[in-house]
Amino acid sequence: MSSLSRYEVLRPIGDNHFARFFQGYDTVGERDVCIIEFLEKFRRNQERWEQIWQQILSAGRIKHDYMVSVYDYDRDRGWVITELMSGSLRELPPESLKNSELVRTVLYRTLETLDYLHAHNHPHGDIRPANLLYDRAGYTKLSYSPGIALGGQIPRREKEFAFLAPELFDPSFGEVGIGVDLYGCGMSALSLLLGDDFSKKLIGRAVSDDVAWQRFHRDLSSHPSVRALLPTLPPDMEAVIQKLISKKVDQRFTSIAEARALLVRPEVEIKIQVQDIKPVEEKKRPAFAPLPSFMDSTSRDPRPQPAANKKPRPVRDWLNQKLKNPLVMGLVSACIVGMMMFGIALVSAIKERQKLVNVALSSKPTGATIYIDDKKMEGLTDAQLKVSKGAHNLKLELAGYQPATQKIEVPAGQAAFQVPLMTLVPVVVVTTKPTSSPEKKIELPTWKLPAGLEAVGSKVDSETKLPTRIISRRVQAGLQNSDIPLSFVLLPSGEFSFGAAEPLEPGELAAHRVKIEKPFYISEYELTQAQLGAYTKTLSATADSQPIPNELRNHPAGGVSIANAVELCKWLGASFDLPSEQEWEWAARGAEGRAYPWGNEEPSQGSVCMRPFNIKKPYTMVSVAELPEGKTPAGVHHLLGNAVEWCRDLYAPGYAEDTKTTGAARLHVIRGGSYRSPATGPIRITWRANAPDAGVNDVGVRIVYHPLLPASSKP
């Protein structure tokens, strides 16, 4: 949930049947965004709004490369925050789009996106050129949509009837469902290919285009021939579009996959030449009336109001009379100016005091939780925080160590401040023996599993007496019998070479020796969709209203934001966290310094789900239990490929990078690569990057657990 001040509304972009759209600016992420404000009529009834809101969140969790990314939500304002695109195909000159291979690219990308949406039981419901957006590079993406129906009702459309399926007007044409997207795809492609002739050739000249289009959709005899309209169109495109625009639902394709199979994939994706295009000049619209607040949706009556009966106001009349005196007017003006200057000075002083300073904070060992003035901060040491100027109480906490406290004074007049290294003192259990008795071995306390965790098997580590494999009972309670459990394997403490040897690739860290001080557990598999669902069901009773398809339950959960990943760890219990970069690489390489998680053999189709070995088109993730040849000797799967994984560290610039590198000291590290990696270059275990806090569709989660050892068991 965003704070009121995070997003600035800059200007209106447009509207549709469910929302208004604004260009905005994210002051925290420092980026332009699109603010989608759902209409007031959907938010009046709180019970229905809650149902719609869960639908909105469900739609936002579906991530795809060819679909606009969702960054954030604000339920109270009815806001969904998405990436801001450069424009829509509707705004472009029709002549610039009448290239059949360009339309093939747009159609294929749209069908691929819809195929993914439909696999998640989510029809888009509003396919039209206005919702086919393009970015600065000239590639198209499909707009965000909460679905066909909102709260169980299909909202009334009031514009662009040309792309609405006949079943939305008349149920005799078939059931409303994925066929709406099929029809919208076909009509959108046809409109791009015909350009200005689209309306002329399909409905002719009409007094009302909206009425004419409704009549066209309902009239079975007006079914157009694509070949007659576009005689030079490639045969595969003609066949696909002709079937997509069939009036009857049962005469269209039964699925998007069937349409994609018939359409030849473009050999080269044709981009929109954005730099050569000037958007079509829109008709001037009346200026927006000034609003007392952004969310005020009270209707305004433009008609003149009857004048009220004037009542005598002696004080007002006396003031008006006195203000006609130039001397009095001068004194009043001077007072007003003085008060304004005082106000400006006061505001400037407050702003100066509230300016945040970059505070660098480090501890030995790292990974401590940070509290400033008793408020828990995001991230763990070592970290860079934004702290206001002045005196603060700093406290660090780490399991197994005494809390460390320090008073700091963040000075004014400088942009950065370094806190001296804080060393944490271990909690030590001291045992003694009587001097008068002979020396004998004292039984030391044994480690016990905390509530919610359960050992798998009887095997324990000889040094720490820890079970070598455990599972989370809390997650297990929300899983089906066929679901893979959230299990962890024990990794020992040790020393290894962290980073890459020469020559380095951009972003990599140079090799140096690192010591893992204490043993820890790491999840055997990437977090699955079913495991994530077990968590989200505890947050909302309607979280599973759209169940996960059985074939995807054991696939990695992609698109998880860093905030949600951290909250999931907290929900699992104390000492659960995302891995640090060093812990992640220790799991992948081990003390022997393996070239790959499984050993030193080159990657193959049986060991890794990455682009060079992914036989599925389009490239997709696989079940976390597949490709067992790629697991580590300890049994950790998919450290390379499938889903790239969050680390808890903020990104530190690597080779050929500096502090101006995107995300440096601001975004979190991701490691391991995904099913789409690498786009170019070799597969390297030392590859590292960062990702937006909101996550992207191939960013997944792996979890670590740090057991609190008795002092006698610490290695």
Low-confidence stretches: 276-311, 429-445
Q: How would a crystallographer describe the biggest sheet?
A: 6 strands, antiparallel
Structural class label: alpha+beta
Number of helices: 14
Beta-strand percentage range: 15-25%
Question: What is the mean predicted local confidence, pLDDT?
Answer: 83
Helix share bin = 10-25%
Can you tell me the overall shape?
globular
Rounded to the nearest angstrom, the radius of gyration is 31 Å
Total beta-strand segments? 29
Could you tell me how far the N terminus lies from the C terminus, measured between alpha carbons in angstroms? 42 Å
Q: Which strand order do you get reading across the main beta sheet? A: 18-19-20-23-29-24
What are the main properties of this structure?
single chain; about 725 residues; alpha+beta; six-stranded antiparallel sheet; about 20% helix; globular
How does this model look, in words?
The chain has 715 residues and is of the alpha+beta class. The protein is built from 14 helices and 29 strands. The strands form 8 sheets. Strands 18-19-20-23-29-24 form a 6-stranded antiparallel β-sheet. Strand 7 and strand 8 (140-142) form a beta hairpin. The chain is globular and about 85 Å long.
